[in-house]
Amino acid sequence: MGRGNWGRWVVIIAVTLGSIWYLIPTYYSFFVLPKGQRNDLKLLQSKLPRWAPGANHRLNLGLDLQGGIHMVMRVDTQTALQKRVERRGLQIVNYLRDQKIEGVTYTTDPNKLQLTLKAPDAATLDKVEKELKGFDDFSKVSRAADSVTFQLKDTQVSRFRDEAVDQAMLVIRRRIDKWGVAEVDVRKMGTDSIQISLPGQQDPEQAKELIGTTAQLEFRMVDDKNPFFSQLMAKHPPPPDSGIRLVRPNGYDQLEGKDREALLAFARQGVPPDREVLLQCVTTQAQKGTCDSYLAFLVDRQVPLTGESLATADYSRSQTSNDFEVNLSFDTQGGIEFAKLTGDNVGRYMAIVLDDNVNSAPRINERIPNGRARITLGHSIGKTDEQMLQEALNLVLVLRAGALPAPVTTGEIRQVGASLGDELVRRGSLAALVGLGLVVAFMAVYYRKSGLIADVALILNGLLILAGLALFNATLTLPGIAGFVLTLGIAVDANVLINERVREELDAGKSARAAVDQGYDRAFWTIFDAHVTTLIAGFILLSTGTGPVRGFATSLIIGLVASLFTSIVVTRAITTYFVHGRGAQTVSV
Amino acid sequence: MRILKHKTNIDFIGKRKPALFISSVLNLAILVGIAIFGFNFGVDFAGGTVVELKFNHPISAAEVRARAEAARLHDVSVQGIGSSTENSYLLRLGGVTQLTEESAVTALKALTDLGGISNVHTDVQNGLINFRSAQKIDPQKVRDAITASGTGVKEVRALGTAQGGGEDYQVVASGMADKITAAMGKGLQQPDFQVRRVDYVGPQVGNQLRNKGIAALLYAMLAILVYVAFRFDFKFGPGALVAMVHDVVMVSGYYLVSRREFNLTSIAVLLTITGYSINDTIVIYDRIREEMARYKGKPLPEIINIAVNDTLSRTILTSGVTALSLVGLLIFGVGEIWDFAMAMLIGIIVGTYSSVYIASPLTIWLDERAARKKAAGSAMKVRAA
């Protein structure tokens, strides 16, 4: 070699070794772990050698290859908006009655989100309009002799939509968290849809649970006098590596642990029959959907009050202490029950439980008679205003989820059975291997030694694509395999271009050395342009595509970059080594 | 080894007129065909439900269809996938929920027969019926009444007391997939099939996906055009663009004639073909540019002929090798992947053809036009002077 080519070889060897290194977690997840536990990142991490990349850098199989459910939920904001318009109508009529304007009735048009107020005569109607001047969530559409029509403002509609979708996402995340599924992806799509991927899940019943009615909200009493947890810790000390420990952040015994399942299993040993252990998700960051640790509560099994009785929830800021407050109001029956519950339990803690997860457990300071409760979020140390506001907002969303249904419907479900997934993996890899084999054989026959060099580059290209997918945490889907095969074709094209060029130069009577150098130099820009144009198509696919198309685009892009590297840098280095370094007088193309 | 032993000297440019004529006629025919017959849109775009069933015994498509008919599922389409020994079928129905325009009528009648029902609002697209009842009503009663009228009910939700009095409820109709599996297993103690895949796309989502897909295609073409104009001379741009459009139309023609499903993967194919077609075109353009510099003064048609002939073996080889890499997919791919490979193969063939016969001749035409304009321009100047 020599002559300044060292740098090139170092890069090539480093890239090759790096790719192999990056594929270690993938190798372990496919060939060391049992098939059923392939998605278990913790197990994978524990098996991996210390010097290997993290377990999250393994190559993921897409839903279509490992089986699972992909769905898109539509939040039915229209129904919720219709109800809101109606509620507003009643509020207005009541307000006008308070202002001594009598005889006003209202009708609503559910399809247009319009509200029409009807008055007995024009004079009354004028008064109504004057009263409603400061009424800013609706705008006036038309006025007839005895009626005036208002329309819910677009800004209100979009704000409401956002809120409703956020609320639904929160509920869905909590419900999925309860199942303990690894690698769940929940994200907002468009204005009113939520996209959910559940790899490995096969049970559509579980999926249905996500769109079941609204969140189940309960108020339960915390048993703060019971020494159950401390006795448990004394009697059956947990294994030291479980991280379970006894804590008293709220003035009573609680258990804390990092692993949800382990904590639940431990804490539920020998629970008294009239008690239950529920967990609270503790996050240190405002990031939604991830729990840093869990806190166990011992609560009464009996449920004195559920969210069905809750009418509204809102947040405000206290004038005196500057703390955030969440205000609840119950309907009539709920108010009576709430008064009794709080009156009987002054000084105790009440757990607000949503879908079997404790959301918060405020202390009851006094009997609350009027069906209006206020939860004060005490200013904890180290929390910023921003975080407190987020906490208040979350609590309001949670409470409203029990009170204000914005029904959710399924917009799209794609479910792939595990057996089909296995078959697709088998067929997909077979197809890729056959394609690769044919191309490799052809190149070796057609271009002899140069063909073999191109084959080395081609195989390296395949390795680089897999490592690239692992590096970027991409997911390998069936269209992804198709993209993989296609890039192999394009990578070969680059070598064909070069070799044809070298042949032409040889035909023109140039020496082997000059032919190789000029062949590569001349082919470079052609290859570059050809790759860049296909890359443009790939990036546009990636940015606008959804689901399967993105998988295709990802492997196409990684493949094209790898192909540029292998065809221009790698094959050239090898050919140059033979022609220059060994001083060969001929080149075999 | 060489496929072309000697340097070829084929007069491609001389045949450009018949080639352009045939291509234009074909393209027009395909566009007209699309306008008249339309694509066979898959659920991705049209919305609807697809269920893939694998039976555990040999069964023919006719038998599967007969079962569906027996359960009064008339508009279900049955399509076998893979080889016949696999006993796998795709069953497709247009709707996504069991609430259709027709079934909504009977469901509404059943609902109003319960008495005290008002404010009924049906949303067929999402399979929802909202209604208000004067008194609290047992959800089970609502479910039974609507189920008896022929629409499966997934859930009856109580939406709470309406402010103006009365109770609000929402009926959510079951999905079509349930109906299909129920129909296929009707009268059997144990279903003799396995549900392997369920795809279910609502109409709004479908429209969104289609618009996004088409937008992606247009953006990609535009971006590629800009790149070509930037890297080469502007006169190369239109030829490249027309060749791209030609290839996209031709591959669309495959979907049109074969009645294969046009879905998200088809958009991916079209985009790849766009990239591939321009790839091929650029290699030839590159050569034309090089030869133009070498033989200054030679007429453009001759230069193009030399360039196309010089790159001919490369063009054939590249297309052949890329096609070779698709062979695996064609042999082992099933369903969507087979369609993908087939459409790609056609795209590669027309892409190769278009870069030789369409992209390059168009450059000549533009060059001639520019020359004529220039001549006319200088003639005018002379007159003015």
> What summary fits the major beta sheet of chain A?
8 strands, mixed
Structure classification of chain A: alpha+beta
SSE pattern of chain B, N- to C-terminal: HEHEHEEHEEHEEHEHHEHHHH
CATH topology of the largest domain in chain B: Multidrug efflux transporter AcrB transmembrane fold
The strand line-up of the biggest sheet of chain A is 10-11-13-12-18-17-9-14
Number of alpha- plus pi-helical segments of chain A: 16
Labels describing this entry:
heterodimer, A: 589 residues, Multidrug efflux transporter AcrB transmembrane fold, Hypothetical Protein Ta0175, Chain: A, domain 2, 4-stranded antiparallel beta sheet, 16 helices, elongated, B: 385 residues, alpha+beta, Alpha-Beta Plaits, 10 strands
Topology:
The complex is a heterodimer of chains A (589) and B (385).
Chain A: H1 6-22, H2 24-32, H3 41-47, E1 60-61, H4 63-66, E2 68-75, H5 77-98, E3 105-109, E4 114-118, H6 122-131, E5 138-143, E6 147-152, H7 154-179, E7 185-189, E8 193-199, H8 204-210, E9 217-221, H9 228-235, E10 245-247, E11 254-257, H10 260-267, E12 275-282, E13 293-300, E14 305-306, E15 310-317, E16 324-330, H11 332-344, E17 350-354, E18 357-360, E19 372-377, H12 385-403, E20 408-416, H13 418-471, E21 475-476, H14 478-507, H15 512-544, H16 547-581
Helix pairs in contact in A: 1-13, 7-12, 13-14, 13-16, 14-15, 14-16, 15-16
Chain B: H1 16-37, E1 40-41, H2 43-46, E2 48-55, H3 61-70, E3 77-81, E4 88-93, H4 101-112, E5 117-123, E6 128-133, H5 139-148, E7 153-161, E8 167-173, H6 176-184, E9 193-201, H7 203-231, H8 236-258, E10 261-262, H9 264-294, H10 300-310, H11 312-332, H12 335-384
Parallel strand pairs in B: 1-10
Antiparallel strand pairs in B: 2-4, 2-9, 3-4, 5-6, 6-8, 7-8
Helix pairs in contact in B: 1-8, 4-5, 7-8, 7-9, 8-9, 8-12, 9-10, 9-12, 10-12, 11-12
